Amino acid sequence: MKKAISILLAAAMGAAALTGCSKSSGSSSSGNTPLVLNEVAHSIFYAPQYAAIELGYFEDEGIDLGVVDGIFGCYWKTITVRGEVSHPSTPMAKRKDAGLAACRIVSDLSEHVAKNYVGKATVTCGKMDFHPGEINAIPSRAVFSVDFRSGDKKNFDELDAYLAEKIAQVEKDYRVKVEQEVFSNTPPTPNTPAIMNALTTGAKNLGLKSVVLPSGAGHDTMIFAKIWPTGMIFIPSHEGYTHSPREYTDPKNLANGADLIAEAIRILDAQ
Question: How many CB atoms lie within 10 A of CB 110?
Fold first, then answer.
């Protein structure tokens, strides 16, 4: 009975993969297409078709697929800088320029992460608003977002401490006040070692070149991991395109992903 269940699930998964995403209109989150495997009791899976942005190099490196060891957490903050509106003729040393102070925080934070957290963390400022938002007015208020991503909560703590130090310095240098608010805090999600091992072994059995790596983008696996053991793989998306009509996954790569999950199910089923 256990074998029949595994074979049935593998066949259904393969059909879903091969019909669900040979071409995408851009509903993905990044540059390769993940297939997600969840194990409940014996072998149950989940196979959505969307992409993972950090993996655009798969084609260049001749990598058939990636086994995901975990998913980066997200730590989002909203930063508000309060200064004083004034005319552009105001001497630079007398200004309380909220806009310039905000830019200094973002620039220094980005340089710090790029220099000290290569492969460990990222930071993004995707939104920034100035008030009153006029060409001929020094901003009295700047509000911007900070998006930290990492697979290790310790990095969030370190970066948060660095941000606090930078804010204190900017408040002094630019004569402004800065407020912080946590907008979202999603911890990193590790995948299940037993399923990762089955996927890695399955790739070897099938003669597929694989690499173990984290996912920098969020995926549904983060939700399922709260309930079940989970595993996840990436397959290449052509030239790494995502959120674009040019996004395309070769049927051969979809078949490789389907074959690998089927092989992993057989390995888990035999344990």
Answer: 14
DSSP string, the chain: -HHHHHHHHHHHHHHHHHHH-SB-SS--SSSEEEEEEE-SSS---B------GGGTTHHHHT--EEEEEEE-EEEEEEEEEE---B-TTS-GGG---HHHHHHHHHHHHHHHHHHH-TTTEEEE---EEEES--TTSB-SEEEEEEEEEES-HHHHHHHHHHHHHHHHHHHHHHT-EEEEEEEEEE--EEPPHHHHHHHHHHHHHHT--EEEEEESS--THHHHTTTS-EEEEEEE-GGG--SSTT-B--HHHHHHHHHHHHHHHHHHHH-
Q: Two tokens at 259?
A: 């074959």
Note the pTM of the prediction, 2 decimals. Answer: 0.73
C-alpha span between 261 and 245 (Å, rounded): 27
Share of the chain above pLDDT 90, in %: 46
Kindly state the tokens that stand for 15. 């059909």
Q: Is-contact 71 222, C-beta < 8 A? A: yes
Q: How far apart are CA 29 and CA 51, in angstroms?
A: 5
pLDDT confidence bin for 213, thresholds 50/70/90: confident
Picking from 204, 247, 221, the residue whose alpha carbon sits closest to that of residue 56 is 247
The candidate with the shortest Cα–Cα distance to 216, out of 142, 124, 137, 135, is: 124
How far is residue 205 from each of residues 6, 208, 213, 268, measured CA to CA in Å?
Answer: 18, 8, 20, 14
Is the peptide bond between 34 and the residue preceding it cis, with omega within 30 degrees of 0?
no
